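Researcher: Let's walk through a ligand-bound prediction step by step. First, I give you the protein sequence. Second, the SMILES string for flavin-adenine dinucleotide. Third, you return the three-dimensional complex as structure tokens. Ready?
Model: Ready.
Researcher: Here are steps one and two:
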Amino acid sequence: MNTQKKQVPIAVLGGGVIGLAIAFELAKRKHKVTVIEKGLCGGQATGAAAGMLAPYSEIGEDPDDFFSMCHESLLLYPEWQADVKEVSELDFEYNTSGSLHAVFHEADELALETRLQWQKGWQVQSEIVKGQALRHLEPHLTDDVIAAMYYPGEHHVYSPDYVVALKEACLRLGVGIIENAGAVSFADIRQDGVAIATEQQGNIDADTCIVATGAWTSEYEEALQIRLPIYPIRGQICAFEQGMEEVKHMVFSSQGYVLSKRNGSIVCGASEDVAGFDTSVTDKGINRLLKWSHKLFPFTEIMEPFHKWAGLRPATQDGYPLIGRLGHCPSIIVSSGHYRNGILLSPRNARLVADIYENKPAGLDMNLFNPVRFS
Ligand SMILES: Cc1cc2nc3c(=O)[nH]c(=O)nc-3n(C[C@H](O)[C@H](O)[C@H](O)COP(=O)(O)OP(=O)(O)OC[C@H]3O[C@@H](n4cnc5c(N)ncnc54)[C@H](O)[C@@H]3O)c2cc1C
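Model: Step three, the predicted complex:
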């Protein structure tokens, strides 16, 4: 155990995609940042994610400021990912395949029409494809799919490599990264700073602390004196080795998705179960994924997944993340609860939090994300 006490201007708790992206953005703006991670960076939800940047497939109705944030984040990705690659000098897959949201029944086509209408207002590139046009786009998709919404603008990254590059980019910009810190608690919270106690890596005083601890954030309810209803929703996911047949797009159905990665795997996800902080996979969870991948792509019926894994999405009570500075403890900024969209949201969220740190206008209605809205 390191007993030396450090003093830093900004400490970010949590080295997932949210914490690292914030650190990267702040470092680009010339701020001195230290990330404190209780285990390994990217070792939780971030490393488990499918990496889809798919707001139009994910959010089917009621566009609001959350949709706006997701939409803006997708548009930031080409520049953001190029920046991470340039600074880190590491490559990771950024795949501009586009996506298909497939439906099996005529009644579901109506829902696609409704989406098409409101998404036009957001200049989303989308079209309903059927028959030959659909088979041309995705030759091995089952004939049982009667139509699909095609979103050429939805993309995906390979999350495990993205987070490695993000960490390296942070290091190269001078961000301090402390991993394997063990339990991390607040020894003292003042108006103008915090004292952070770590189990394994000594104590750290910071002028500002950004809490980006994903599904574990509710541990700080008592210390921060607010309700933080963020809880883990397990996502089980698996991968096949790609054979002769390929999956060209991210293909969504109402019950799951299938997509190919550059490393030769076909990823099939993901369950949503409540299992506390347990990240094991279950036969029930994986079999359900397999059933839906067989329904979409019958060629997968003879395949066995070579890799099965799970991660904990940080879900919130109302589905929106908690982002903002705490009025009663201005030395604390919270940025947690990005649930199914943390990889997608990483660039826009990072800019938002950096703007909050610099007391700049957020450019979004922040009421929806107010971190004290449950208190
Ligand atoms: C199966 C699956 C598929 C997904 N697919 C997608 C997708 O396609 N697209 C998408 O956008 N999102 C997807 N997600 C969601 C996405 O992974 C999350 O929204 C995102 O990773 C959340 O990032 P985070 O940094 O908040 O959390 P995490 O990655 O969980 O990071 C939080 C970090 O904080 C650390 N920590 C916890 N407590 C403390 C503490 N007290 N002090 C210091 N460190 C602490 C943890 O060890 C962890 O490393 C998926 C998730 C899963 C599980």
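Researcher: And what stands out?
Model: The longest strand covers residues 230-241. DSSP finds ten helices and 19 strands in the chain.
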